[in-house]
Amino acid sequence: MMKKNLILLLTFCSILSAQKLDGKKVFETYCWGCHHQSAVAFGPPFTEIASKRSFDEIKAYVIEPKAMYKSFGYKRSVMTQLHLNDDELDAIAHYILSYKGK
After folding, report:
1. Which CATH fold would you assign to the domain 21-97?
2. What pLDDT, on the 0 to 100 scale, is given for residue 13?
3. pTM for this one?
4. For every residue of the chain, which 3-state class applies, written as one string?
């Protein structure tokens, strides 16, 4: 019985200590070539994106930039369609929004 409780406790602790996916790491992996946090690069900086877009809009644009660019007021889109999983999408959207107001 004691052994089962210990195993349950260790499992619970490992779940609690599991780190959320790091948005900065997703950024460095997929976005760094075209975007910078606060400086203009090939694409707009995250400070600009965060000041104009919601969490859901950011995710939608990352998922399908070619389908979304007109609704965002852009004349064209050269952004590559990234194939991120849900955790990566959430992480990058939160990371971008962390630059709102900077």
Report:
1. Cytochrome Bc1 Complex; Chain D, domain 2 (1.10.760)
2. 41
3. 0.75
4. CHHHHHHHHHHHHHHHHCCCCCHHHHHHHHHCCCCCCCCCCCCCCHHHHHHHCCHHHHHHHHHCHHHHCCCCCCCCCCCCCCCCCHHHHHHHHHHHHCCCCC
